[in-house]
Structures are given as structure tokens and as C-alpha cells.
């Protein structure tokens, strides 16, 4: 097949254009530090890189979820710890009220006021809000206070009965918010009302009732109410401590999951680097090789232009 001078000239121009494109491509790789800039550079590596990035995206989503879970759990654990302190003080007050037969009516009235104040503190903690105004112990009904007093001072629970949970890993879901009813419910009790408040109300009423000059039966009845409140308070204290312990264990597990997530991120970053990043030694060698090819193409083209057969077509 015979080639015309114009065809030969066009071929040389095409060679220069192709060599220049390859040389610039190698230069862009060195500039970006990436071996794979687009799928056509290495379809298999590009496909695997997409899967690795998706894996890391899920990993980061769970890391964010764990952050929210930690905040909720830490706050509720702190409040549970305060509840433990208050119920411990309630127990001490009830023991003092039930064990000392020499207490005067004034002493008993003073203990009643202490119990009333501790009860109010317990209700106050149960109605604590988080940073965005949601009631922490109200379950999914977090827009209103879970513990409400009626006109007589009786406390009822009006929050939700379902725990708030959060998925913190691909197959792990945790309780981030225990409800107020399960936190303040004494072990073994049933129903939807925390009986600790009713028991305290009965004990407070008994302590406020003067016993001077009253028969022993009245004293025994008052002691029975105090003893009942003490039993229920101890059970409630144990229940709150159990919730506190569960939150503590979950927080430890979240720390472990964070460590695993960090390791996963490192592995994903390493794999992405292997798939996309340059082998610098090879890249620099390829760059200078393409540069040499381009220079050779320029030389051939310039030599060709000086031939007499091409000068005729200038």
C-alpha cells in the first residue's frame, strides 16, 4: 500500500499528539499522586475502590451513631448516679425514722420534710431535659415531662413505655435511653406507676401525724408504712443501680467498637492507597519514558519537514 506525503505528514502529527497526551497523562498522575483517576485507567481497581469507599462510608455512619449514643448514655448514666445518691439518702432517712423510738413529733416532722425534699429531687431528675429540650426519661414521648404531680401531689408517669435504641454497628443495637418507668420501678412490682412515690407519700404522711399520747397501735401502723417505704426504696435503688451498670457496660462496648472502627478506617485507607495511589518509582520512570518518546517524535517530525519532498508542499 502506497502512502502519500500528506498521509505520512498526518501520521507524524498524530504520533506527536498521542505522545504528548501520554506524557501529560503521566504528568497529571504525578501531580495528583493517583494511579487511577477515572475508571478507564484501571476498571478493576476503580470498581474495588468504590466498594472500599462505600464500606468506609458505612463505618463513618456507625461512628457518628455511636457518638450520639455515647452522649445520650453518658447523660442518662450521670442522672442515674444522682438517683442512686438520692435513694441512698432516702434509705438513711427512713432507717432513722423507723429505728429510733425516742423521736419526738417535731423530729418526725423534720424527717418528713427531708423525705418530701428528696422526693421532689427524684422527680426533678426524672424530668431532666437534654440539650435540645427533650425529656430524657420519657422514651419516645419526649416532648412532655414524664413525671407529673396532680393536685394532691401524687406523682404519675406519663412518658412512653418503649426504650429508645440506636444501631451502633452493622449487627449491634443498644438502648440509649431507658424509660422513667423502668428506671424507678422497684423490682418485682407491676403496672405503669413507679410505686416509690406512693410509698414515700405514705411514709411522709405517717411521719407528719403526731403520735404523742396516741396508742401503740397508731405507732405500729406508722412504722409499717415507713418499713414498707424502706423496702420499696431499697428495691428501687437496686433497679436504678442495675440501669446504671447496664449503661456503663454499653459505654465500654462503644469504646471497643470505636477502636474497631478506627482499625477499619486504617485498613480501608491502606486498601484505597493500594488501589489508586502511585508507585512513585514506576510513575517517574514512565513519565521520563513518555517524555523521551515525545522528544523523539518531535525530532522525527522536524527531520521529515526538511526533506525536499515535503518542502514542495509547504
From TrEMBL:
Family annotation (InterPro entries): Flagell_FlgL, Flagellin, Flagellin_N
Location of the protein in the cell: Bacterial flagellum; Secreted
Pfam families (UniProt xref): Flagellin_N (PF00669)
Membrane-crossing residue ranges in chain numbering: none
GO CC terms, sorted: bacterial-type flagellum hook; extracellular region
UniProt feature, compositional bias: Polar residues: 19-31
The Flagellin N-terminal domain, residue ranges: 4-140
Keywords: Bacterial flagellum, Cell projection, Cilium, Flagellum, Secreted
Residue ranges, annotated region (Disordered): 19-43
Gene Ontology BP terms: bacterial-type flagellum-dependent cell motility
Molecular function per GO: structural molecule activity
Family: Belongs to the bacterial flagellin family.
Protein's name according to its UniProt entry: Flagellar hook-filament junction protein FlgL
Originating species: Proteus columbae
Gene: flgL
Amino acid at each position: 500500500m502506497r502512502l502519500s506525503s500528506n498521509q505520512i505528514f498526518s501520521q507524524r502529527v498524530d504520533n506527536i499528539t498521542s505522545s504528548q497526551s501520554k506524557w501529560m497523562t503521566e504528568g497529571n498522575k504525578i501531580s495528583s499522586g493517583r494511579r487511577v483517576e477515572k475508571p478507564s485507567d484501571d476498571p478493576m481497581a476503580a470498581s474495588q475502590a468504590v466498594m472500599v469507599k462505600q464500606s468506609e462510608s458505612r463505618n463513618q455512619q456507625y461512628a457518628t451513631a455511636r457518638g450520639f449514643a455515647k452522649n445520650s448514655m453518658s447523660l442518662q448514666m450521670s442522672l442515674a448516679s444522682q438517683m442512686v445518691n438520692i435513694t441512698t439518702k432516702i434509705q438513711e432517712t427512713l432507717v432513722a425514722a423507723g429505728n429510733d423510738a425516742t423521736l419526738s413529733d417535731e423530729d418526725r416532722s423534720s424527717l418528713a420534710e427531708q423525705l418530701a425534699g428528696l422526693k421532689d429531687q427524684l422527680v426533678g431528675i426524672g424530668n431532666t431535659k437534654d440539650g435540645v429540650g427533650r425529656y430524657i426519661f420519657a422514651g419516645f414521648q419526649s416532648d412532655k415531662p414524664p413525671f407529673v404531680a396532680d393536685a394532691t401531689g401524687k406523682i404519675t408517669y406519663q412518658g412512653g413505655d418503649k426504650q429508645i435504641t440506636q444501631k451502633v454497628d452493622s449487627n449491634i443495637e443498644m438502648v440509649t435511653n431507658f424509660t422513667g418507668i423502668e428506671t424507678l420501678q422497684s423490682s418485682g412490682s407491676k403496672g405503669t406507676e413507679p410505686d416509690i412515690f406512693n410509698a414515700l407519700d405514705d411514709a411522709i404522711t405517717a411521719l407528719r401525724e403526731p403520735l404523742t399520747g396516741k396508742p401503740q397501735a397508731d405507732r405500729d401502723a406508722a412504722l409499717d408504712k415507713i418499713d414498707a417505704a424502706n423496702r420499696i426504696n431499697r428495691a428501687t435503688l437496686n433497679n436504678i443501680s442495675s440501669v446504671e451498670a447496664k449503661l456503663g457496660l454499653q459505654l465500654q462496648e462503644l469504646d471497643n467498637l470505636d477502636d474497631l472502627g478506627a482499625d477499619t478506617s486504617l485498613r480501608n485507607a491502606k486498601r484505597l492507597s493500594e488501589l489508586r495511589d502511585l508507585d512513585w518509582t514506576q510513575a517517574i520512570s514512565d513519565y521520563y519514558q513518555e517524555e523521551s518518546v515525545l522528544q523523539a517524535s518531535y525530532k522525527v517530525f522536524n527531520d521529515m519537514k526538511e526533506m525536499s519532498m515535503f518542502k514542495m508542499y509547504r
